[in-house]
Amino acid sequence: MRLLHTSDWHLGRAFHRVNLLDAQAEFIGHLVTTVRERDVDAVVVSGDVYDRAVPPLTAVELFDDALHRLADLGVPTVMISGNHDSARRLGVGAGLLDRAGVHLRTDPAGCGTPVVLADAHGDVAFYGLPYLEPALVKDAFGVDRVGHEPVLAAAMDRVRADLAARAPGTRSVVLAHAFVTGGEASDSERDITVGGVAAVPAGVFDGVDYVALGHLHGCQTLSPRVRYSGSPLAYSFSEADHRKSMWLVDLGADGSVAAERVDCPVPRPLARIRGTLEDLLADPALVRHETAWVEATLTDQVRPADPMARLTGRFPHALSLVFAPERTPDAPDVSYAGRLAGRADQQIAQDFVAHVRGAGPDEREQAVLREAFDAVRADDALREVAR
Questions:
Q1: In what residue span(s) does the Calcineurin-like phosphoesterase domain sit (predicted)?
Q2: What are 267-310's pLDDT values in tens digits?
């Protein structure tokens, strides 16, 4: 069986101030063409179909168009909701859409109930694990603590139990939206840290033939059977070096996996350039970036006048301007923002406590901080569900 694995469409998202709807529509057309021309047997979409819980009407219309075009091909599609989606909204009409071959899996209770498709070699069971917000599903899954690993492990126990009851030789595919250990993040994924831990080990998914992951925006291979497709478009300058693609996966009669990357259309390349303003305006080596979306980091000691206006004179698609003055050896080497970059909320809070009172929090106080952050995230998740 030949699968096309994609995820993280983020329909409705902009890139800085640039509307990406046309680029997203071009990607949908490319996906449909790939399905038709490469004899794809099933499409899997591993979450974050939309960029937010209440997407703009134009994004809903594009999604509707995608569903119709995939259904017209007669090729089954299995989709799950991600942490950006409203599971309830995305799942509306799921029962009716099943009849058209579009299988939306947004209810955590259905983790152990697969979509079963067949080829010449027998059945393939597709298990959809939508994004599982630990605080919201902990009780339903019967786990003792809030965390991504225990709830995903409980969901996979249901998958393995169902698979064990099926005919020998039944192959299996799991769709999941999670941060799996070994994956490389970018700046455009929403933080899903719980209890100070965001990642789950890949071993949670043992026992199935292929795991189609979503959430991280870079295309990545964690093992031959566990892969991220990544987002089809870049949504931050941290993705400037990404090669945006989908996975074309051949699932053999014995459950073996062979995968090929299928590149996605690039609306405009990204470039990150750094130097003084005068150097950036004069450097002949930067000619190749004059048609790119540009993030410029200026290292001038004194902020120059009208820097963005001058930059766009040479780089008309410059979108982001960062100031990082070069410092003398005896000056602080990073800004406050730089000191916070890449640090977890928990660590920032602990450092703040240490700064204010001269000593960091003890283990009990760290636990209180952790519980407070988890409560805020759970409250945010509940508000997303209610919206």
A1: 1-218
A2: 999 999 999 999 999 999 999 999 999 999 999 998 999 999 99
CB 90 within 8 A of CB 185: no
Please tell me the predicted confidence (pLDDT) of residue 373. 82
On whether residue 70 sits in a domain, the answer given is yes
- Which of 210, 237, 263 corresponds to the end of one domain? 263
**Radius of gyration of the chain, Cα coordinates, nearest whole angstrom:** 23
Q: Which residues pair with 129 in a beta bridge?
A: 176
DSSP three-state, residue 161:
helix
Q: What interhelical angle do 363-386 and 345-357 show, nearest 10?
A: 140
Around Cβ 14, how many Cβ atoms within 10 Å? 12
pTM of the model: 0.84
**Percent of the chain's residues with pLDDT above 90:** 74
- In this structure, how many other beta carbons lie within 10 angstroms of the beta carbon of residue 313? 11
Model confidence band, residue 386 (pLDDT cutoffs 50, 70, 90): low
What are the start-end ranges of the H helices in the chain? 21-37, 57-73, 87-90, 94-99, 134-141, 148-164, 277-282, 307-314, 336-340, 345-357, 363-386
Quick one: which H or E segment has residue 244?
A: none
Residues 46 and 167 reside in one and the same domain: yes
Helix (H, G, I), strand (E, B) or coil at 51: coil
**Domain hosting residue 12, numbered range:** 2-263
Does residue 39 share a domain with residue 156?
Answer: yes
Question: Within this chain, do residues 112 and 241 fall inside the same structural domain, yes or no?
Answer: yes
Q: Which of 125, 112, 11 is nearest to 63 (CA)?
A: 11
57 and 21 within one domain: yes
